[in-house]
Amino acid sequence: MTESVSPSFSHQADPHRRARLRWRARRGLLENDIIVERFFNRYEESLSDQDVASLSELFELSDNELMDLLLARKELDGELDTPPMQHVIALLRSV
C-alpha cells in the first residue's frame, strides 16, 4: 500500500505533511504516545517517503494492536510483514 510520491511532494519537503503525520500519530494510549513522540524526536528529520507510508499504515491499527507491536509482544504478520514495515518497527522499538 505504498504510494509513489514525486520529490516535489515528499514528506520532508512539505511541513504540512509532517504536521499531519504527527497529528495522525496521536493515540488514545499514553504509552503509544510516548514511544511515537520519542520516535519523531529522534527520526523525523531522516524519514523517507517509504517510512512515512509504513507509519501511515501502522497508525491505522488499533491502539492495542500498535502497542503490542511496539513492545514486541506481537510481530508483524500478513500484509504488514514487509521489509519497509520491519524497518520502521525496528526504529520505533529502538527508542
TrEMBL record:
Belongs to the SdhE FAD assembly factor family. GO terms for cellular component: cytoplasm. The keyword NAD does not apply. Keywords: Chaperone, Cytoplasm. One of its GO terms (biological process) is succinate metabolic process. This is FAD assembly factor SdhE. InterPro entries: SDH, SDH_sf, SdhE_FAD_assembly_factor. Pfam families: Sdh5. It comes from Cupriavidus basilensis OR16. It is found in: Cytoplasm. Its main location: cytoplasm.
